[in-house]
Design goal:
Chains A, B: This is CinA-like protein. Chains A, B: InterPro entries: CinA, CinA-like_C, CinA_KH, Competence-induced_CinA, MoaB/Mog-like_dom_sf, MoaB/Mog_dom. Chains A, B: It comes from Bremerella volcania. Chains A, B: Belongs to the CinA family. 2 copies of one chain form a homodimer. In chain A, helix 3 packs across helix 4 and helix 9 runs parallel beside helix 12. In chain A, a hairpin with an 8-residue loop joins strand 6 and strand 7. The first copy, chain A, folds into 3 domains: about 170 residues, MoaB/Mog-like domain (Molybdenum Cofactor Biosythetic Enzyme, Chain A), CATH 3.40.980.10; about 80 residues, Alpha-Beta Plaits; about 130 residues, CinA-like (Maf protein, Alpha-Beta Complex), CATH 3.90.950. Chain A is an alpha/beta fold. The interface between A and B is large, with 82 and 84 residues.
């Protein structure tokens, strides 16, 4: 079963509002074991709406739309759905009464415009909206052997979510559409580039593998996204555990965590577990390292604090190592971590990362490439990773 | 001219990640007067990618995609675009050299997989990517009288945005044929809550007003979003200028800036204009203030640096004032700004913000409410706002 999620409104296509309904519905459908392959957003144009609805009904088996069910002229979902499926709109007396009642409750008379919200394509089921005036629409549609179902919900998240949970989810379960269970798990890695990582995991990233493994990178952190499909949650989880084990066997300590974890989360966790502490000093990163660490450890039990240095004329491996040792002793911390960059007129720029501990000081350096937004996080993460590896021995 | 924006990746269709590129590109196209009517998101499936690209090329004149240009097997945009337009992929030697150079700069060898990133559909223009290994693709495609153009950009926002600004925008100049011109303008304010702000501007927020004014709040910064529609850009801009004037007359120096500006941007700008400098010291905010300031002033010409204090047992108005004076003198700066919080066992927690200058020291304090994520940014912004007001006299 292939699902498509549709969002309707000029405020979305013009970029004035960020659509979060679609992400939420994607997560909900995945949890029900229904694969989402398409998202579509369309502006308030009748012809365009008819076209995208026709497309969706042809390529998906389940289409969920949000928006376009209001009472004003730019709310076109009802009409577009009727046109796309060659049906007529018909007034539903009970829905009209519900809408009128909502106005009466607020001591107002229903504007004539709102009557349109009680009109439904012939043959559709009505999805009650306890929190608003726009009921939803649930319509089956078939062409030859291809069956699909269109569910139109309002765009107001609070209304949409309650209608989803109260009426749509039971109807999806009842119809037995969710035959498969889907589970996700994310393995977080640091230390190599995306293609290098893939080379280390040749058979895992292949399409068609079960569970599926996808690879994405954000600020030098690699996420391996495992998606398992099965008959039961337990089956999915076993398959995921097996894939995680294969990843660990292949890439070893490049794996640092899972889910939403970042390097600072695991570093602070490990420091706290050992009753150890850290002080930092950094130049060129505007305190990024301290900000990350401080945001995790708001009590400052492990991350004692950081210093952002005044601009330095000349940074060297030696000076960054010295800064790490100094941060450790001034902060009276178990570890001192220092970051610094050297801009050279005549050759490639460099950055240095140094870690001081009771065992002395170790450091690494690398070339700088691109924008500070790119190398800044990478440098800060190399520092955290150096400490992480020290902590796990 | 109709535009469509496309986002590619399982991590989006599965709901694991929220797509923000599409909104950003929509805003950019609107500003160019190009109407966006469709957004499409598709998972990492070759056949589905080919279909949505064909659809988009048929119904839009300009298609901008993000994602799917990485070096791994689940990056399908290049291949799907070639298939959808019945073209072949061909190696571009210059792009390959660029990619190899990026690896060399970081002291690594290019994995063979990355060669795919130098492959382009025959006839396409290459969009350089100074910050990453994935160049973009710019391909014209016509069927009969319908002409369209497909621009494929990487999904990494920092790379995508620079490529957009540097290469794509100049190539689109003069292509906007929207009948109506739309202009947006955002006025930024700080110092009161959202409902208070609305009460100060009663006639402006009204629905149906032209230009439209919307109000949103993020981390205590209020954005007043003005949307003007007209026949010419000049007409829109005049209407916006008139509304901006009305806002300024109503709320005075609560207005600090416009557009994407934050308090740190205007503070650094004003300091640089006056040839003055700032040093900071903060506790409880994990260096947030220094991080914000340092990100604006990467050269450190105005923001000399910050210190993140080790945890303090007892903060008082006096101690924070003293810290501001000390930051100023130690840093040899025109201004010293200090932030501190006091957690009390028996009464409401407090925070203190102090500003030291040649005129002495001034400070403000306020109660702490809720989560550090709420009061942290507010406290840091109160410090910046204190300095902003000092700078404008």
């Amino acid at each position: 079963m292939i699902a498509e999620i549709m969002a309707i409104g000029d405020e979305l296509t013009s970029g004035q509002r960020l659509d979060t309904n679609t992400q939420w519905l994607s997560q909900q459908l995945e949890a029900l074991g229904i694969e989402v392959l398409f998202h579509t957003t369309v502006g308030d144009d009748l012809e365009a709406n008819i076209q995208v609805i026709k497309n969706a009904l042809a390529r998906a088996n389940l289409v969920i739309s949000t928006g376009g069910l209001g009472p004003t002229d730019d709310d076109l979902t009802r009409q577009a759905l009727a046109n796309a499926t060659s049906t007529e709109l018909k007034l539903d007396a009970e829905s009209l009464e519900h809408i009128q009642r909502r106005f009466t409750m607020r001591g107002r008379e229903m504007p004539p415009k709102n009557q349109i919200q009680a009109m439904f394509p012939v043959g559709s089921r009505i999805i009650p909206n306890p929190n608003g005036t726009a009921p939803g629409i649930d319509l089956d549609y078939s062409v030859g052997l291809h069956h699909s179902r269109f569910i139109a919900l309002p765009g107001v998240p609070a209304e949409m979510k309650e209608m989803w949970a109260t009426t749509v989810v039971p109807s999806l379960a009842g119809k037995g559409t969710a035959k498969k269970i889907i589970r996700h798990h994310v393995v977080k890695c640091f230390g190599v580039g995306e293609s290098h990582m893939e080379a280390l995991l040749p058979d895992l990233i292949k399409r068609g593998r079960e569970p599926r493994v996808g690879i994405t990178v954000h600020q030098a952190t690699i996420s391996l996204r495992i998606t398992a499909t099965g008959q039961t949650a337990q089956q999915c989880e076993e398959a995921i555990a097996d894939t995680v084990q294969q990843i660990q066997a292949a890439v070893g300590d490049l794996v640092f965590g899972e889910g939403e974890q970042e390097l600072q989360d695991v570093v602070i966790r490990d420091l706290l577990a050992r009753g150890e502490t850290l002080a930092t000093v950094e130049s060129s990163t505007s305190g990024m390292l301290a900000f990350w660490l401080g945001t995790v450890d708001t009590d400052r039990q492990a991350f004692l604090g950081g210093t952002i240095e005044m601009p330095v004329e000349l940074v060297s491996q030696e000076s960054v190592e010295k800064a790490a040792v100094q941060a450790r002793s001034v902060g009276n911390a178990t570890y001192g971590l220092a970051l610094g960059t050297l801009t050279k007129a005549d050759s490639a720029d460099q950055y240095y990362v140094a870690l001081a501990s009771k065992d002395g000081v170790e450091s690494i350096s690398s070339g700088l490439a691109g924008h500070p937004e790119i190398w800044g996080p990478r440098m800060a993460k190399q520092g955290l990773d150096l400490l992480r590896k020290k902590l796990i021995g």
